[in-house]
Design goal:
Blueprint: H1 2-90, H2 94-107, H3 110-142, E1 150-152, H4 154-164, H5 166-169, E2 173-179, E3 186-188, H6 190-211, E4 216-225, E5 228-235, H7 265-276, E6 280-286, E7 290-298
């Protein structure tokens, strides 16, 4: 009898171990799916960013070449002025030299150069700054050292996500920022939070794109509410039908055409914000009017990696 009880106990232990093993394998598969999803998105965004970088880099080069040619013309004028000074001192040929100076001045259109050169330089500098901003955003998003839970700046995350997603929203919406100053840091995985905010910005852009051809509006706001840090993302897109609101966080659920969406975007947001970062997420949406997503993080929560 005792042997039977011991046998049953051993069988139960074996089943428990088998169950734990299965759960571990499921968890590993989910983690692999998450990593695959993030890497696929990274590849798509890298292509979009390469396209976005092309324009500013092109006009940086064009404007710098223009500045080089304009500088040559200006130096030529300086040479003429030097000749005027030299001849004035020795040969009293002032009238001839001034006439030559006027001719060169008009031929090289110095007035136009004086007007356009500062503008060209400003535009070149602006283009270079755009490229640097895009490059830094991609670096922060893809850097593997940001996988641990550390104090992170939510405002920085919002700015980086918006920059990375510029190819999605630029042609359909104007983006507005209302970011609180001196916002306390939250404990989080910076890369994962950039991806989560990026998903929401891209969703907002797609919702606006489906509603109307003219530019819509995406507004991102951060603020401190008591002990919590709140992020609000609001758009005036097509909104969410009432009968679908309860399913938007389901993995693989999507209202997009086959091939246009994986149904993992909002599921990823929910998993990262709620399950991994201990936050809260609420969506207020009216069909045909737009959506408002409110995410709340605890100021100093105890997190699990």
């Amino acid at each position: 009898m005792a042997e039977k009880k011991q046998s049953a106990s051993g069988k139960n232990q074996t089943q428990v171990k088998k169950h734990i093993k299965i759960e571990g394998e499921i968890s590993q598969r989910e983690n692999r799916k998450k990593q695959k999803y993030m890497m696929e998105n990274l590849g798509k965004l890298a292509g979009a960013l390469a396209h976005e970088m092309n324009t500013p880099v092109q006009y940086v080069g064009d404007n710098l070449r223009y500045c080089r040619n304009a500088t040559k013309d200006l130096l030529m004028i300086f040479d003429v002025i030097d000749q005027i000074v030299d001849r004035m001192e020795g040969e009293n040929l002032l009238d001839d030299m001034i006439s030559n100076y006027r001719t060169k001045y008009e031929k090289k259109d110095i007035d136009f150069i004086r007007k356009e050169l500062p503008f060209a330089l400003d535009q070149a500098i602006d283009g270079a700054e755009q490229v640097l901003t895009l490059a830094r955003a991609m670096r922060d998003f893809s850097c593997p050292t940001h996988r641990e839970m550390i104090p992170v700046d939510l405002n920085r995350i919002v700015e980086r996500a918006s920059t990375i997603g510029v190819g999605e929203w630029r042609d359909v919406a104007n983006i507005e920022f209302d970011l609180a100053e001196n916002l306390p840091k939250i404990i989080g995985d910076e890369r994962a939070l950039i991806q989560a905010v990026l998903n929401l910005v891209v969703n907002a852009a797609h919702a606006i794109g489906e509603k109307k051809p003219e530019a819509g509006r995406i507004k991102l706001r951060t603020e401190r509410i008591g002990d919590n840090i709140q992020l609000t993302i609001e758009d005036n897109g097509i909104g969410i039908p009432k009968n679908l609101k309860g399913r938007i966080f389901e993995r693989y659920f999507t209202t997009k055409e086959y091939g246009d969406g994986t149904g993992q975007g909002l599921a990823f947001v929910h998993e990262e914000v709620v399950k991994r970062h201990g936050g809260n997420i609420e969506i207020d949406s009216k069909e045909g009017e737009g959506s408002k997503v409110v995410i709340e993080f605890l100021n100093n929560p105890t997190k699990k990696n």
